[in-house]
Amino acid sequence: MAKKALKTKSQGPTEIAILLYHDYQPSAVYGLMDLFEIANRFVAEHLPQEKRFIRISHWKVKGAKKPEMECVLDTHPDLGPSKPSFILIPPSLNRLISPDAASPFAEWVLKHHKSGVSVCSVCSGAFVLGETGLLNGRNATTHWLFKDEFTNRFPKVDLQIEKLVIDDGDILTAGGLMAWIDLGLKLVDRLFGSTVMVQTARFMLVDPPGREQRFYSNFAPQLHHGDEQIVKVQHWLQGTGAQGATLRLMADKAGMEERTFIRRFKKATSLNPTEYCQQVRVAKAREMLEFTNKNIEEISWKVGYEDSSAFRKVFHKVIGLTPGEYRSKFSVISR
Fold first, then answer.
1. What is the pTM of this model?
2. Half-sphere exposure (CA, 13 Å, Cβ side) for 61?
C-alpha cells in the first residue's frame, strides 16, 4: 500500500532559539532538543527529498555593564547565521527570575517579536515573558503554584491557570515543569502537521497535547489575607469538608450579614462561597478516588452530595474530567 502523503506546514529549516537564563532547567532544554530531533527524523523519513527540520540555538547574556545576547550553541552551524522563527523560554527549578535579571532577555525577545518571531514559555519562564509586556491583555498560563506571584507582578495578564498550554498564535505559554513536552509537541504539530506530532509522541510514550493543568493541581486555600473572620470560616470548612455549609450558616460563623459575607469572602479568597465549597468537596473526592475503591455514589454522598449526578457535574466543572476518568488516570489502588 502506498504511503499517504505527509502534509507539512514549513519550508526549509526552522530555528528555535532557547534562552538560557540563570537557574534554567537543563532537563527541559535537553528534553526539548531530543523531542525536536525525534521529529526531525520522522520528517526525514517521510520527506527525504526535502530539507525540512528544526534547528536549535541556545542564547545567554554576556557582559555586565552592557549585557548582550550571545549564541552559545547551534545544532547546524554550517548553515551560517539565521533569524529564529520561535524563541522558547524554559522553566526553572529554583527561584523565580527577578525583573532586573529578566531585563536583557525581555529586550531581546521584544526586538525579535516585533520582526515577526513567535515566543513561547514553559512554567516559570512566563515570568521572563511577562517582563516584555507582550502578555498584557492576553491569555497566558504558568505553573499553578505561581498563580498569586504572577498575578501580583503582571496584573494586566488574563491568567488562565487551569490550562496546561495556551496557543495564542504568536505567543504560546505552558504551565507545569513537564509541560515542555506538550509545548514541544504543539510546535511540531504547527511546523510539520499531526502525523509527525503523533509519531513523535508515540515514540516518546507520552500523550499528545490535550491535558489540562487542573487535572494535577491541588486546591490550596488562601489563608494569609488578613481577614480573621473569613479565616475562621475557612478553617471550619476544611475541618468539616464543607458538608452542610449553607450560605446562612457560613455567614453566621463569620458573624456577618449574608451580603457582607459574600463580598468579604470573595475579596479574601478570590472565590465566592459556593465555588469555595465545591473546591473543598472535590479535593476530598479526589483523595478517595485515588486511594480507595469506594464507588462514585458512595464518594458523592461522603463529600456532601446526595445527588450523584450533581456531584459528577461539579467534579467535571472543577477538574475537567469525570470522576471515572480521574480514577482511571490517578488511582493508586490496583483493580
1. 0.68
2. 19
